[in-house]
Amino acid sequence: MLANLEEPRINPEPKRRIRKRSLSRRQRSNASVIVDKATIAAALELEELQREFIYSCISLGMKMGLLAIFAVSFVKLGVASHDRILRQLEMVSILRFESRKLNQLNSRFDKLFAIGGENRLISEQEHLITPNSVRVVWK
User: What residues make up the domain containing 71?
Assistant: First the structure.
């Protein structure tokens, strides 16, 4: 009776685990391959873009360096050319001055051997002779 007095036991239904439907091996490998291929392709494309960006930055740096070298070279060349032209102009002016001086001295020398050259020489040099001195002319 005691057994009857006890509350009857109700056997609840065992809880069933709800399993997610798992894919078969073949389906699983195909799905992971598809995802992996897409992921790998995206990663490779990203790496390629980064590599291209780095290469373009390097080439831009090289081009800027070469441009700077050319610019400095042209400036140096311009300065050297300017100095050379200035020296050339200075030499031309000195040459003209010396040529005029030479022509004057040549004409003066030629006049000494012309008729009356001795008198002209003595008259030109009179201001060079000090007073109260004797002039000796050798013949």
Answer: 24-126
The phi, psi pair for 8, rounded to 5°, reads -70, 140
Residue 101 within any structural domain of the chain: yes
Q: Which residues of 34-64 are buried (b: 16+ CB within 10 A; e: fewer)?
A: eeeeeeeeeeeeeeeeeeeeeeeeeeeeeee
How far is Cα 100 from Cα 94, in angstroms, rounded to an integer?
Answer: 10
Mean pLDDT (10-residue bins), the chain, 139 residues: 57 63 63 71 93 97 98 97 97 97 91 80 71 71
Verdict on whether the full-model pTM lies above 0.90: no
**What total of structural domains would you count in the chain?**
1
Strands, DSSP E only, in 1-139? none
Please provide the distance, in angstroms rounded to a whole number, between the alpha carbons at the two ends of the chain: 185
Q: Kindly state whether residue 51 falls inside one of the protein's structural domains.
A: yes
| All residues at 6 or more sequence positions from 135 whose CB lies less than 8 Å from its CB, including other chains | 122, 129
